[in-house]
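Regression check, HDE case 691:
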Amino acid sequence: MSHKPYRSHGSVAKGGELHQQAGADKKTLTTQQGGPIADNQNSLRAGTRGPTLLEDHIFREKIFHFDHERIPERVVHARGYGAHGFFETYDSLSDLTRADIFQRKGEKTPAFVRFSTVAGNKGSGDLARDVRGFAVKLYTKTGNWDIVGNNIPVFFIQDAIKFPDLIHAAKQEPDRGFPQAQTAHDNFWDFISLTPESMHMVMWIMSDRAIPRSFRFMEGFGVHSFRMINKEGKATFVKFHWKPKQGMQSVVWNEALKLNGADPDFHRRDMWDAIERGDFPEWELGIQAFDEDFAEQFEFDVLDATKIIPEELVPIRPVGRLVLNGVVDNFFAETEQVAFCTQNIVDGIDHSEDPLLQGRNFSYLDTQLKRLGGPNFTHIPVNAPKCPMHHFQQDGHMAMKNPTGRVNYEPNSWEEDGPRENPETGFKSYPHPVQGVKERVRSETFADHYSQANQFYKSQTKIEQGHIAAALVFELSKVDRVDIRARMVSHLLNIDKELAEKVADGLGLEDMPDAAEPAMKPRHDLAVSDALSILKNGPDSFRGRKVGILMTQGGDGGLLADLKSVIEAEGAIVEVIAPAAGGLKDSNGKPVDVSEKVDGGPSVLYDAVVILTTDEGAESLRKMPPARDFVSDAFAHCKFIGYVDAAKPLMEKAGILQDLDAGCMKLTDRASVESFIKTCRALRHWERESA
Ligand code: HDE
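Current build output:
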């Protein structure tokens, strides 16, 4: 049965041949029906100043299409950004799974990944304090496998029935329609403070994990326990981890607030730019594998998505790498229409009984029907498997693959060689025995809500603990009802007393509440897990980061050349910011490309900054508030600052000259530039914050 070639442009004659019409050459604008258009500037009118006529089919078709260009945005994860790439296995995993993708070393599988925020609408800012979605579609030879994960390994709730409540509480309040893309409001904290199972997740979202520097610098997690099943039918529980080769990095909260104004597309631009310049982001996929008996030994339940398994207890086994090497051609067609589904799994991988995962398994297909308008969304190229497909599903809205012939059912006796089920290679569920009374209960093994929250907090550096406390104070200060603030503090008392006191103090809470009554007595003696901290796992390179050089007319050309070559050798990026968008020359009279005019290029856009002015340049920048902010923000955000002597008057006006520390380095020659960039590998001068 041959399918006729489908052409989206130009009229297709029977047999698939394009008509060679005079008007329908490549250069002539046509309607969707293929009719050449003579005038695309004026609608058809009754007289030059008269009303537009209904018979204007060209106008009518254009507006009709325009009116229907949007599809419903995702109810969660509406704001996102996608990219193409591949996944490559390190080794055969046949000991654990019979999944075809893991049978051969070096197996390459095409992939599409979409990163997202959860709460904000499609047009919201990238730097919201929020969980990031990390959804991976692997087009395997035995069908699509989606790992629809997040950048945080736990979740707010234990049962999917609470998801609509959680999301309603987090999104904009229903009467006023704000605040958008932020959890700093009464409804969110009202719900959370009434939901003790959220407390572990609260620690993560109040940490810097929720304000990543970019998608490239964050981890990803499958969150739930899944199963791998091998040829012998043996099942092993697995947890999936994506570790960024670029290292982890986050911004500071005040920086995030300003970034949302300076560049609301900061994260998607970063991804686009990195791929376009050939600096392909890469993650290593690792698994934590353990069997049912081992799982029994944990005090928590491996089916509870509010718990992690510390890497120190079950080490991560690296199994492959994911490389993103292609931007999308069309944002709508790919990023907007991609349809992930937790039920897209392949034989050899299976679900666990995690009640959150079970609920998700219902939700994703359901939401695609609403968003993509029908059951044929696998006909959209980004969703279509890249392996052969043979089934008898047909018709429906916008069906693009329309079989011919008489057979649309199975079994049939029309086609002897037609598609049939295959017990050998077909998907087989793990025969996990299930038995029980039909009831609405939660297992007692899900009752510990605070111990891992305490473990997470304890595993952070002092700096990171400070950020968690500050984030809680910020969020709860935006909550109007004092009883909600106090109720949150009552939970913090079960997590860490000092943290609770710090937050109560920051909120100006008059009376310390009693600790919330726990369902199970929390443990505070779980071992510290260094893997939970970002700062304990920083990169040892400045690769992929960006330096902003604030430069004025006649700035030192020698230093500029040194900076450029040293930064580029590190694999980092340089941008010049100047008082005007063009016409900049260095001390040798050489023209310098300007990336940003000073008020469009605040220092929040950069990982480290250099101030390369002349005496006169510094004098004129002193009078420019954006230039002063450039310097004072870089300092406040603990960034490394390189400067020349001539820049001192500007630094003095920005209020940092009297506080210069080891993170502020004078640049005089190539050696000083080299030592500056080496120092930048630490990413931030955190000592400044504790000072
Ligand atoms: Fe989702 N989630 N989710 N989720 N989720 C959606 O599916 C849902 C959960 C995640 O880039 C929706 O296609 C329920 C956990 C990502 O297109 C929807 C529950 C995790 C994305 C949905 C959860 C996720 C979604 C909305 C509670 C991390 C974006 C649009 C049981 C493991 C995928 C869509 C993309 C999207 C339902 C909880 C990850 C409504 C019911 C936990 C990354 O189906």
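Comparison notes: The chain has a mean pLDDT of 95. The pocket of HDE is lined by residues 74-77, 80, 114, 116, 133, 135, 148-150, 155, 160, 163, 223, 305, 338, 340, 356, 359-360, 363-364, 367 (CB under 6 Å). No diff flagged against the previous build.
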